[in-house]
Amino acid sequence: MSPIYFVHIPKTAGTSFRKASETFFGLRHVVYDYADDSNETSPFILDIVYGDGDRFEFVKYLEANEIKFLSGHVHADKYLHIFGAANTVVFLRDPVQRTVSEYQHLVRHNKYEGDLRSFYTQPRYINRQSRLLHGAPIEALGFVGLTEDYHNSLDQINHCFSVNVQPVELNRGRTKKQDAYKLSDEVVKEIEALNEVDLRLYKTAQNILKNRTDLFQKELPYVHSEIQDANKKLVRGWAWYATSEQPVDIQVLVNGQVNGHMLAKDLRPGLLRLSPPRKGYVGFHHNFSEQLATGDVVECVVEGTGQSLGKRTV
After folding, report:
1. pTM, full prediction
2. 130-149 per-position pLDDT tens digit
3. Are 215 and 222 in contact (CB under 8 A)?
């Protein structure tokens, strides 16, 4: 099993997940990066990552000490190239609820004295989720869970990574985590307007988890993918299985009719910074035998499972 990299976005049930993972893997196999002024940050990370150490020594340390799990309040791209996108996990949460939860946490634990609006209008607290994931395509990440669907997410993480992390609930600000904060319509609209990028990201994550859950319940494999281009001459993109290194067999439909097949086996150099599966040989492309017309709809579908990889109108 490859080590898991957990991008811990504040107030998304991340503390519960990382502590449960620590219990499963054992403390000696877990390391943390919660900034250079945090007591939770592992000493060797302080020495190498925040000191003047050789970053290659960091990689060697992970291997020599059989590190299985790294978690931290870090930007995803900090360690993404080391662990690989397919081994990266994150939880997202409704942006309004997450924002209010972070405010309440700072009031309780950091003696924040301002009101809610003074908090959520500060630039550093706006679009927190998307900023921490900048440079990490959500479709490429090994698993994107939702705080609101935590147990389902955890079940699928266990299946995907062949682990057995048991649920625990920690660092909760309320007795019932599932209860939403009660806010005026005006406040909700303002937070949503400020966090428009996070809101789009969250909706994408909802769709991904829904599709993934449907396949999980049918015991069918999930495919990570993106259509990078679709025009009148061709369609191209990338795809890989979540739990297999077999090339993905893709069916191309034009206006609902089969137009061709292709395997996702081309090199995608632009993805190498993500350390993708199959050493980057995950690309696909299909040239249409006849030029398409404006308004034609192209869809890519996984052969054998029917998973749609998306539609594009040319």
Report:
1. 0.93
2. 999 999 999 999 999 999 99
3. yes
